[in-house]
Amino acid sequence: MKVWINGELFDPEEASISVYDHGLIVGDGVFETVRASHGRPFVLTPHLQRLARSAEGLGLPAPDLDAVERGVRDVLAGAPAWAVGWIRITHTSGVGPLASNRGDQGPTTVVAVAEGWSFPAPADVAVVPWPRCENGALVGLKTTSYGENVKALDHARQRGAGEAVFANLAGNLCEGTGSNVFVVVDGRLRTPPLSSGCLAGITRELVLEWSGGEEADLPIEQFGNCEEAFLTSTTRDVQPIRLVDGKALPTAPGPVTARVRETFAERSAKLLESS
Fold first, then answer.
1. Is 227:184 a contact under the CB 8 Å cutoff?
2. Which pLDDT does position 273 carry in this prediction?
3. What are phi and psi of 232, to 5 degrees?
4. Mean pLDDT in residue range 12-34
5. Are the C-beta atoms of residues 34 and 234 closer than 8 Å to each other?
6. Alpha-carbon distance 41 to 75, whole Å?
7. β-bridge mates for residue 176, sequence order
8. Which pLDDT tens digit goes with each residue over 228-268?
């Protein structure tokens, strides 16, 4: 198994980046996690396109997407063909000073892979007391500045939940630490709009395309009183929510969630077969 760094393949024990890399020093980077199934990446192109959008939004040099795609293929070729694997693509501003201002040595891009796992279903979630800022400079960007998510997830796990969910400053449902949230209200499938501050998740986009649903704000107080709810992400696919802050939803999975999950499984399997 190999790690790809700036166009070169290394054994994991020999792979390294500088301790002065700004991805480490100040979290000045962006990333993508891509699912692999039996050695084949799932919807790689949309992930690469989002990587480029995030880099542009953060003001980073543009990643060479063709080179990164070759790196993904090369890393997968040397890895076991796990039933589920995670590909991590990280792109930082590269070596810089011990301060916030960037250096001029060029970016660092890394592709690594590891065996994946299946999330338990259904999920228990906890709403955290720290709202997302829907008007911040990093809204919509998948950056490596993940300290807020780490703290939120620890908060949730201390309360027996497997995922943390944020409201935004407007008091509406926003997103999880690494997931988007869908709810069913009055039989209608809804998810927060991108204006809520949530990330434009690839799985979220596929669910909207394949199963419909509408983007609509939902007051966070109503989240625990919806008929059904589920999380979506690259690592979770479609995961029903059972408990919100310890309160059980009526069904998990409910009929809408079950239908969405079945459709997603069927359509994603066909995409993998054709890739």
1. yes
2. 75
3. -130, 145
4. 96
5. yes
6. 11
7. 165
8. 999 999 999 999 999 999 999 999 999 999 999 999 999 99
Q: What is the DSSP string of 93-158?
A: --B--SSSS--SS--EEEEEEEE--PPPSSEEEEE-SS-B-TTSTTTT--BS--HHHHHHHHHHHT
Q: Which residue in this structure is represented by tokens 């290394």?
A: 10
Q: Residue 167 corresponds to which tokens in the numbers above?
A: 């409201």
CA separation for the pair 92, 61 (Å, rounded): 9
Residue 214 CA neighbour count, 13 Å, CB half: 8
Query: Using an 8 Å Cβ cutoff, are 28 and 21 in contact?
Result: no
CB 145 within 8 A of CB 199: no
Say if residue 274's pLDDT is above 80.
no
Q: What percent of the chain has pLDDT over 90?
A: 96
Report the alpha-carbon distance of residue 48 to residue 62 in Å, rounded: 11
73, 2 Cβ separation under 8 angstroms = no
Tokens of 268: 């994603």
